[in-house]
Amino acid sequence: MxxxxxxxxxxxxxxxxxxGFQHENPLDYALPLLILQICLVVTFTRFLAFLFRxxxxxxxxxxxxxxxxxxPSAIGRNEKFLNAVFPAxxxxxxxxxxxxxxxxxxxxxxxELDMRAIRRTGHKALGIALCGITVPFVLGIGxxxxxxxxxxxxxxxxxxxxxxxxALSITAFPVLAxxxxxxxxxxxxxxxxxxxxxxxxDVAAWILLALAIALSGSxxxxxxxxxxxxxxxxxxxxxxFAIRPLLVAMANRSLEGEPVKEVYICITLTLVxxxxxxxxxxxxxxxxxxxxxxxxxxxxxxxxxxxxERIEDLxxxxxMPLYFVSSGLKTDVATIKGGLSWAMLMLVIFNACFGKxxxxxxxxxxxxxxxxxxxxxxFLMNTKGLVELIVLNIGRDLKVLNDQxxxxxxxxxxxxxxxxxxxxxxxxxxxxxxxxxxxxxIQRDPDTELRLLACFHSTRNIPSLINLIECSRGTxxxxxxxxxxxxxxxxxxxxxxxxxxxxxxxxGMPFCNKKRDGKDQMIIAFQAYEKLSSVSVxxxxxxxxxxxxxxxxxxxxxxxxxxxxxxxxxxxxxVDGSMESLGHSFQEMNQLVLCHAPCSVGIFVxxxxxxxxxxxxxxxxxxxxxxxxxxxxxREALCYGMRMAEHPGIFLTVLKFVTPPGxxxxxxxxxxxxxYRKTMDVVDVNDYDDKDDQLWSEFLSACNNTTxxxxxxxxxxxxxxxxxxxxxxxxxxCNLILVGRMPPVAPLGSKSDCPELGPVGSFLASSxxxxxxxxxxxxxxxxxxxxxxxxxxxxxxxxxAWDGLWAWALRRWINIGAKSKTETKxxxxxxxxxxxxxxxxxxxxxxxxxxxxxxxTRSHTSIPNISIFFxxxxxxxxxxxxxxxxxxxxxxxxSDSKATSLDLTQPxxxxxxxxxxxxxxxNGSGGGGGGGGGEGGxxxxxxxxxxxxxxxxxxxMSQKFTLAYAALVGVGGVMGFxxxxxxxxxxxxxxxxxxxxxxxTELPGRPVFASSVGLGISxxxxxxxxxxxxxSGKVFPAGVVSLVSLIMTGGYLHGxxxxxx
Length: 1061
Prior knowledge:
1061 residues, alpha/beta, Na+/H+ antiporter like fold, Rossmann fold, 4 domains, 4-stranded antiparallel β-sheet, 9% strand
């Protein structure tokens, strides 16, 4: 009780209740209420994270927004809900639990930083980091003075300046690592510089924060901050020289492959809590103790990895959402009211973005970083997130920031982090497409270097993979063998930044510790093999989500000019011989690589090739069998076997299946998945007879010329499916079988759950065949393969602006042609012609004297044939551009005094559709060859040709979301008008109807312009609905509408910038 005024304090809550049957409310007791809060918070934040996933935002964004929405800014404005779920008497328990989780999270953050690597940071990253701190910190001083004079009157000057400076200059290292990994930039030059600079920035920001905390004490003595800083320095020295040796000793006693002792985990966690207590006693907040212990924690060995795995899931999945809700309960966005407060918000956001982005960009340009990379670095370094929120909460707890200043800074942190991903995607895309190369198959000139991209998931795959590489060495050939050993790492929600960064050091990331302590088994295995053989082995790491990791595999293979990608089968063999699946996602990954690979692909079904350890060259003695039915894939398998047979320890047997005259084997394997049924199309056997006979002659010549009996062949006369199965089962005594994925005569028509292996490969990989024979299923590169867009999309020409324009237009055409499953109807003159998978496209005429016109057709092979007609000779540099950067396309250039024509078609096909003349008159004639008839073009009046299809393009998910949103607002507007006669509601309904019609008719064909109009209509809806709800006093509906409109507006902005790029 206080004097003068009576202050009522809530009674402390008991821990547990006796239950509802005893007439007790469980929400009046601490434990059941805390359980309810945890369940609600985790469910709500996970739901928001799911909604934000299409925008590729880090999960911290959803958690911050979830905390704000559950607080007094939105849902918490309902007093009944707030008093029932988050009563004032429960906040202490919630804050305590959240801060315990925060301690261990800061321990992980400190663990992510390698201080030795920071000391080795180059001048470029160091300069970027220092400028990224200094410029926003200086601008923050001016912002702090303005805030202190308006919304934070009475705040202590110096602590307020330091807190605001730190808030504006800090970069969230963990959030940045997640964003870089999501955007696949972690191992690029931009990613390496950003991570190194962010690490330096992080350390400097924590030092400044410690200074701010020391200066913000309420004691009037000027010596107190000095004593706090001195004691803090002594504490750091004690941790480095007393606690670190203990942690190193425990790490050294935890051997690789052996379980870590539980007592070591308990000692480490106890040290974290004890050091937090010490720093809290000193007066520099308990978080610093946990952070310092994390920085001195050993980074190598199994002890660090096991400790991270033990606490990461609990901390990031359970405790941290509680901290965001605890922060959200203190954030009331409604306190930002009035023109002055909103002006201060705009000022804070502008200074935060301007200082970081401009400062980082200018310094990067001075270090000769390309302009796009420099701008991307500026936005990446502007990432705030969780660390920013921690700083703001400390400032609020110390009474340095009031509620209004706190809310302004929280909105600033949320905004700056939210814009990072879409803007970086728009302004910077690393060059994923390497220079075109010739050798994309094993069947090639034997004197050229053979490059293989050998992928593996874990150490389980390494012994057999190295033995397979040894077999491929081909010691008799002049051409060398180069292996890119690629570790496929899944980027999951539980991956911490330290895990991602240390996995990426194999790609040469300078931020990580390069010291080898003898415990990295995977790297050591390949390094040892490289020293014992003449094979060049280059370890790499690919870090990506399983839904997109095939993109990284394809682009890496193209960049490294690989002739074959070797993928591990998604099942591994158990001790009892049965096959255990790693998951359907790994199977889909293999199937997608087969569909989009820029070279040949081999799927390796490992049944212990060579035992559990790799062998030396002198110990190799393998029997390899190649069943040969004929066809493209079987020829590739035979060529691979012929290369292996040049190894002195390899004995190759080729089994050629022949049928009696007049007998044919039914083609096809019935697969259980309709999705991949189209890959099992019938192949014309006659197309392959000549090529098969030619390769078979070469093989017979090699058999006759060899001095040793390392190659032999047999011919199997088969008349039925049973004969083939019997012949295949006789091959179980060999070590490895090389088989083509899709022979032109597939004799086995049984169902298969593994269509990626083909009919014969599925039989050989089944448990009915063998438990000791490994299988390699090979698919030869086919020029008609639908190569992934990331491999073929880089057409940029830095020297010619006009070429860049034509390349952008051409890329848009190719992308739409590759992705569209149905067609859209063209309605006006000069509009883009629709495309389909099975029909050609008529010519497009563009009137004028300077613009070119395009003609593009598609055949059953999904290869676009492109004809480009230029109006004048001024476009002749573009001819050289296209012929130079598209060597795989056949170029036929003709010119006269009036026009110049460039026809880019595939060498093996001729499906060119109808073109257009100089006046834009499209003839719409059908294409020759197998491409089918061309679609009708536009005539000079803009009328459709006779072959026009009436189908519409399928809507994308974002467009469907737009339609659903507009329909919801439109129905609400009409109901509001009918109920209360509100003209604003009617206006909202009309705007929604306009958006519905426009998106449905125009967005599929004109995405950039339609997105711009949709953005304007969304902004109008935001103003109308927000004003309507605000006047009626319905704050929560106004907040929900504003949030949805903001999300959609951000999506449109992202789409516009990405399309323009």
